[in-house]
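Example 3.2
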Amino acid sequence: MQAKHVERPPVPGAPRAKSGPVQPEDDSSPEALTPEELAAQWEAEAPEPAGPVANLASSLVVLALGCAGMALSVGLGLGTPAAPSAGMWPFIVTLIAAVMAVVQLIVGRRGGQDGEKFSAMSWYTVIGFATLILMVVLMPLIGFEIPALLLCFVWMRWLGGERWRSAALYSVLVVVAFYAIFIAALGTTIPRLF
């Protein structure tokens, strides 16, 4: 019985396999690149920079989200450092995001060499964020187990490229680990089925 050869898509940025006999690599081969040569190769293969307009737009979006988060956090109540209320940590996190957005507005106006142009892969971030919001909406209704399982599966299968079996197994293991840590060990009051 012969093993079936399965063609897998290439990993971005990975060297392509060559046909022919496998030869051992040594330092004298042309494929042994110095760190400077690797850096030049990666720079040549890098996507185009986003530019100042994209930096401005993304910074303004983060700033708006940070300001909205701070306003919602104040509505929950901040409390004091000795006795924090529900809004304290969300306020701190959104304040940090807003400050970083302001810094990016100032620094990023010079051209934005670090950011990348939006591409088809940029939609993965939107899909990840949308599924996370869906989990937050479903958790109070049906507990955390089913939404967390679905979130992990979607992220691992479609965003991470795992195979069906691996994605299903890892998703179950993640939910079991979260259950063991947050419910069994720490006794938190997360909405749950069991």
